[in-house]
Amino acid sequence: MRKPSNRKVGKKVRQDNFDTKFEHMVGEYQSAKAALDTLEEDSVEYAAQKKQCDQLFASAERFFNSRQR
Fold first, then answer.
1. pLDDT tens profile 10-53
2. Cβ(19)–Cβ(36) under 8 Å?
3. Model's pTM, two decimal places?
4. I need a labelling partner for 53 at 20 to 30 A (CA). Which of 4, 37, 47, 69 fits?
5. What are the Cα distances from residue 23, in Å, to 14, 26, 58, 64?
6. 3-state helix vs strand vs coil in the chain, percent to 5
C-alpha cells in the first residue's frame, strides 16, 4: 500500500529553493550595481558593467515572474 504523500512539505521545499535562488540573483545584481556606481559614465567599463547589470536584472525579473503562479 502506498504511503500518502505530504504535498505541503514539497511546496515548502520548492518555496525555500525559490527564495534562496532569488536572493542569490538579487545579491549578484546589487554587487554589480555597486561596481557600476563607482565607474565614470562615459567610460567603456561603465557601458560593459551597465549591460551586465541590465542582464542580471532581466534574468531576476524573468525568474520571479515565471514562479508567480
1. 667 777 788 899 999 999 999 999 999 999 999 999 999 999 99
2. no
3. 0.74
4. 69
5. 14, 5, 15, 11
6. 80, 0, 20
Are 63 and 28 in contact by the 8 Å Cβ rule? The answer is: no
Angle in degrees, 0-180, between the axes of helices 7-37 and 44-66, rounded to the nearest 10: 160
Q: Which three cell numbers stand for residue 30?
A: 546589487
State the Cα angle at 47 between 45 and 53, rounded to 5°.
Answer: 100
pLDDT confidence of 5, banded at 50, 70, 90? low
d(CA 41, CA 26) in angstroms, rounded, equals 23
Backbone angles phi, psi at 40, to 5 degrees: -80, 145
